[in-house]
Amino acid sequence: MRRTTAHALAALYMLPVAAIGNEDTLTEEVVVSASFTGVTDLMTAPIHVLSGEDVARAGVQSLGEHIDSLVGVSTADFGAAAGQPILRGLSGTRVKVLNNGTVIRDVSGLGPDHAIDAPLSDLQQIEVVRGPSALMYSNGSVGGIVNIVDNTIPMTDLEGFSGFLGAEAQSINDGEAIDLGLRGNVGGFNITYSFQEQDLENYEVPDNAVLHLDEEHDEEHHDEEHHEEDHDEGHHDEHGETGELANSDFESTAHRLGLSTTGDWGYVGVSYSDINTTYGIPFHVEPPGGHDGHEEDHDDEHEEDHEGEHEGENHHDEHGEERVYAETESETLVLRGSINTSLPWLNSIDFAVKDTDYELSEGHMEAEHGDEEHEGEDHDDHEGHGGAEHGPTVFSNESTELQIALDLSSGERIRRLVFNYAEEDMSIIGEEAFMAPVDSTETTLGFFSSDDLGFATLDLGVRFDQIERDGFVSEMHHDEEHGEHEDEHEEEDHDEDHHDEHHEDEMVFEPQSFKEDVFSVAAALSRNLNDYTSVSLGLSSVSKVPSAIELYMNGEHLATNRYEVGDITLDTERADSVDLTFSFEGNGWYGKASVYHNRIDNYIYLRDELDDEHDAHMDDHDGEEEHDDEHHEEEHIDHGGLMLAEYKQRDAEF
Question: What is the number of alpha carbons within 13 Å of residue 474 lying toward its C-beta?
Fold first, then answer.
């Protein structure tokens, strides 16, 4: 969904003491912090740069929307807040999002409905980097990296005081936003502060707009014309009366505070950021056996008894008034600096220590309606779909990262040696522990070089990763003694709650570890053919180990209506790619053409269960075991009405 704004009002005010922008920045050469060459020739390097001024002028957008106009870049929209970048068809954990050169350790890469935890105000620039230098910052960056560079920790002394104030209004969603910032030097210390607040309501949509939840729905019910008319009428009521897209709202508040001191010896500084967001998730996918299967059950089992209750408005009741949302809270503390040396072989030591406490909560609830319809047995039937309230499911990630980079350059020969160490503690907790805490450690040693060979420039990046994950593989365990105890409790009203609790399946956890040592390499050879034209050839072989959720997940993902299951036996991905790029710039014209081929062995993907597989699964279960509570068993196999999605592997080409 691309956002269309009827009108936007933005104001930017700069105090006259200092200016943030640099009008002398050249088109073909800009300082790119994510590249170890310092000054990068954009004519030949696989790098895109979006300035902070361009970001400010674009107004309130997700990160993906800001950069999706760049060549080879697009975005995966999942509402106003969640817009993940896609680089040459790759996204998720294959595209790493960084803030000032360190990985943003949220859970955005684990689902398209998760927003990236980074405020986009008071930025210096956004960099999209592929090639050898991208290897230095994160393991598994098969698609590349997106680096968000802000001005929170000044690396040079500030002169005087400066500030900015920005405001925006959007009529399409009654939205408003404000951001402000101050920076100055007090007693030899550089101090910065920035604040951003955004409040966007649901998007207005045209009257009679229809939200198609499943493209196959019309085909599957083509012969049921009367039912289809009722279904369409329900959707007509859903959006025609309200005139807005439900769950498309977005609200966020962000604070950033920085402090630094500088000198001939280098600089050192600290920063603190606090980000809180709440946003709706408008695209609520229907599963096989959920929407279609659920309505078939109504037709077959309940139509005679509940025709008046469920006809026509039933779909509207279930989907028109439901609230699907996510809330995030994060705190990040960073210590960063650079120490210059007088050693002939070592120019400087850059270091960063980053501690992040991140939490995302997903919830699904319905407005109170039809209490009479959902009493007793009928209420139990709907419980698999969430009932009045479903969730929340909490994605938690606590991490600490250390990064040390040694500048070994000499003259025009660029040399960097980089060491990274990171610890993560990730868990997903809902009504059950869908993913028990997984402790991950990542140890990396990388090397980057750039040499002028005379006829061309050669960039080389090498990375070694040692990654270990310790967690628990979970599965639902059914107590075989249920049958012996059911008769004792089913007629005792005062023990009904105990019977239900005893009869429920329980999650069983088995400790499992994953450890892998991987190696990645990338090289790029570039040459200027003349003053206007250049050509570059890139080769790379990059490894990506499975993420924690791909290995250990076993539970509900409410926002996407899926029951996701990981696989501890997944192998490491290996992506081998070749890239040939021609660039032209001159006389006010700029153009770039690229041809690339990317082959990924053991490509990991989330595979949805097909309708026929779901039906076969249910048929195979019928008759295996007879229990008095047949609906409970069917609901377990049906994963609570959610679509079963499993992490699988196969070779892929892009």
Answer: 24
